[in-house]
UniProtKB/TrEMBL annotation:
Pfam families linked: DUF4806
Region entry Disordered, spans: 102-122
Native organism: Phaedon cochleariae (Mustard beetle)
Protein name according to UniProt: DUF4806 domain-containing protein
DUF4806 domain sequence ranges: 248-314
Length: 370
């Protein structure tokens, strides 16, 4: 019994339709099951989904126990409908009766199916006829026009010699193309086929040189960007850990403390103080820098309740000014982009529960040794 469905009793109102029914962890109920503790309203859904143990400062309300359930999904279903969850899925499907037919009835049934399905008419598709004479003539003329714009170097002279090989009788080339290139024909490896392939390869040399030039320009621009980033990094010294005294207590241990830090960093003084604190942590690479910062700011117990997008009733971190400041510092020092930063942060919070379990095991082991 992990969860319970309870009805909160409002002493001022007697109308049963106004009574609130909700699923809650069973640990929130009192021993006599007549009262239930309730957290601050903005965190209730998160604490219910994570089955967080109640705190002493939570409010206590009178309730009536409706159901006890083993899972959160079953408790939600009963809270909505007031009925047990429907048994669906494998093992609960209704068995359909089997229809038995005699051989004569089966044969008649197959004949009816064949009558209902019209026979498909196959339409022969003939391949389009290509004018290979015009095709080769266009390629030769285009290649000649391109060769006029290229300086007459030794390589280009060789290229011109290869192109002149195509100067043959176009009718003969058309016959060879019909025999070697058209669909449903075998490739005999004739001389015109090799000439045609040589023409195609030589025609693309100019475009290859053009693309190589574009790639070279992109590499130059990237090198300039890297030099600017390095210059930006060397403009001012990064504060050391000894010089930084952050005014708030870290790491954070609860959701209200996150909101308090968020309000602090929105001030100009708080933003500068938190920026210097993050700079002082450092790391050997992007992932190490992010991991070290998050360990300094959040406890493992708190990381269980948070995620980047806020899915599965977690506290959303992606919109916080805290995360924007951390990303700004790491982007300048390590050169990471937003996608890489989000992936590392989301992964760290996703494994928060595992780190918390390991931390508890270590504390228990240390207690036993003492």
């Amino acid at each position: 019994m992990s969860y319970a469905v309870v009805k909160f009793i409002n002493e001022d109102e007697s109308d049963e339709e106004d009574l609130l029914v909700s699923e809650v962890p069973f640990s929130w109920l009192s021993k006599d099951q007549r009262f239930c503790k309730w957290p601050p309203s903005q965190y209730a859904s998160i604490f219910i989904a994570k089955n967080v143990s109640p705190s002493d400062d939570w409010d206590e309300h009178p309730i009536e126990l409706e159901f006890t359930c083993d899972t959160l999904a079953e408790a939600k279903q009963r809270a909505k409908s007031g009925k047990p969850q429907e048994k669906i899925g494998r093992g609960f499907r209704q068995i359909k009766p089997i229809d038995y037919f005699s051989p004569a009835e089966e044969e008649e049934k197959q004949k009816k199916k064949k009558k209902q399905i019209p026979a498909s008419k196959e339409i022969p598709i003939e391949p389009p006829e290509l004018d290979y004479v015009a095709l080769i003539a266009d390629r030769v003329s285009d290649t000649d026009n391109e060769s006029e714009d290229i300086p007459n170097t030794e390589d280009n002279s060789r290229r011109t010699q290869k192109i002149t090989v195509v100067d043959l009788d176009l009718k003969e080339a058309s016959m060879e193309a019909d025999r070697t290139i058209t669909p449903h024909s075998s490739n005999d490896g004739g001389g015109s086929t090799g000439t045609f392939a040589t023409l195609v390869v030589d025609q693309d040399i100019h475009s290859i040189h053009t693309n190589l030039g574009k790639i070279l320009n992109m590499l130059i621009e990237m090198k300039i960007d890297v030099m600017e980033i390095k210059q930006r990094m060397n403009e001012g010294p990064i504060a050391t850990e000894k010089e930084i005294v952050f005014p708030m207590v870290l790491p954070l241990k609860s959701l209200p403390e996150i909101e308090a830090l968020e309000a602090f960093v929105k001030t100009e003084e708080g933003k500068q103080s938190f920026t210097n604190f993050v700079k002082s942590i450092g790391g050997k690479d992007t992932k190490d820098f992010i991991t070290r910062v998050l360990k300094q700011v959040f406890t493992n117990a708190l990381s269980e309740l948070c995620s980047w997008t806020g899915r599965k009733n977690n506290f959303e971190l992606g919109h916080l000014q805290i995360m924007r400041i951390i990303f700004g510092v790491i982007r300048i020092n390590e050169g990471c982009n937003a996608k890489e930063f989000e992936q590392h942060v989301a992964e760290w919070f996703r494994h928060g529960k595992q780190r918390q379990l390991r931390e508890v095991l270590k504390l228990n082991k240390r207690t036993l040794l003492e």
